[in-house]
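Example 539.
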Amino acid sequence: MLYARDGKPAAGPPPAPALDPSRSHPLTPALMSDASAPSAVSMDAIVALAKRRGFIFQSSEIYGGLNGFFDYGPLGVELKKNIRDCWWADMVRRRDDVVGVETSIIMHPKVWEASGHVAGFTDPLVDCKVSKQRYRADQLFFSPVVVEGAVIGYVSALESERTTEDLQAAAETLKRKKAVQGKLEPVSPRDFTEAKPEEVPLVPSPATGEPGSLTPPRAFNMMFETYVGALRDASAVAYLRPETAQGMFVDFRNVVDTGRVKLPFGIAQIGKSFRNEITPRNFIFRSREFEQMEMEYFIHPDADWLACHEEWLRWCQDWLLSIGLPASHLSLHEHPKEKLAFYSRRTVDIMFRYPFGVQELWGIAARSDYDLKQHQQHSGVPQVYFDEATKQKVVPHVIEPAVGVDRILLAILCAGYAEEDVTDDKGNVEKRTVLRLSPRIAPVKVAVLPLLKNKEALVARARELHAKLKRNYAVFYDEGGAIGRRYRRQDEIGTPWCVTIDFETIEKDGTFTLRERDSMQQRRITEAELFQLLAEQVY
Ligand code: GAP
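Predicted structure in complex with glycyl-adenosine-5'-phosphate:
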């Protein structure tokens, strides 16, 4: 029994009913074996599609944009909402042990003192005094250039998939420039947080290529500050939340007192978080305003926290598969003990193979009783749960799966995007761009297309079906252009099915042509079968 406490076994989290084993499988090492292989898709193609088809725009674009902020267009907002809705349905509504909250973005500043964010939510910042560029020290790599055992200088490169190759190429250039003879040794990359004080002035700035302008790393707090009320002094300072998690901790007692919850139980929230990232990058992957889906799962202090952590890790992997992310792009990264966040006793990240490298998608942390104890101490209000079995008050421990909606959305676009050569009926080869999105999250589920727009009977039947489908599903009506062109438009935005109303529909048996996005196969289908298909696939 997973969460067995002394003398009283307690049930662990039941699997979400949505996760039908025929549709998703836990990740196995074999399935994950090629997770580090390079991605075939380019970020340029993803960014171009996102803009072209109205998924994502740069924020305030007409004013030149604002780095690290993005807007979601008509299709992006649907896709994002579907991700949130699926998570909420599986994480909260379909479970008996998780409840939801929505807490305020600006909280009492003492929350962030207690949580450790005021003192410790920092990234190491490096300035280039000449170019005025700023870098994250842990993303700025350098190496001594060694020829025949002697250091002839230093090279630097920003973190990328090719950091070592870039450093090696720069080392060869330096050796040539200095006309040094002898064998060049392989570079030994370190990040700038590991630079010794005497090395700092020797490392060239990535902006100028010259040494001497980089400052030693210093801690930069990533919380955005604001003022609450009319005064603008230190007493009015507040912060935009950098994580949604603290809302759940601060409301722990409120939920226990009102929610009829019993350990183990979870409190979930979806909402915006803000971090003044030093180097926002890779499109929506690392932005300054983003959305998180977090759940704090409270367990008895004597419960088997490691088993609970493992179970949530599996649940999260299964959930990603259930919304269509391929296992081949996923892998796990266990944080080494010495690099754990201050609140964590174990963290495992589910990594995704993005075009710019394998990066963190979802962090699953065992936060112990750190947060509740901190809030108990700073607020003076006991953060305890009365355990009926032992008649004792306990401070529960916490397992936290925390994921960014925007990172999932980007992963979905990258994994789903493909450019293919297809042959039409006349034997002509043409390119099609297709987004292979799961029906669960596709922004449009079905496109309804009358074969010809100048045949009143076809249009009338198509409009009737469109109106019926619209009551339950996001559907699209399109009568403009050749049918093949209309299919392509839907392929590019990830619509799983197109339904064509043709002469057989109105003159024969009422069936439609159902065209499937991925296989491009077509078959006849009745209206009842269409609704049945949607009910099964869109859950
Ligand atoms: N409460 C724990 C916490 O916030 P985190 O690893 O800092 O942990 C959780 O963040 C998740 O939020 C990450 O795994 C990532 O998916 C997302 N995330 C974090 N910073 C982000 C950023 N700057 N832009 C987009 N998503 C981000």
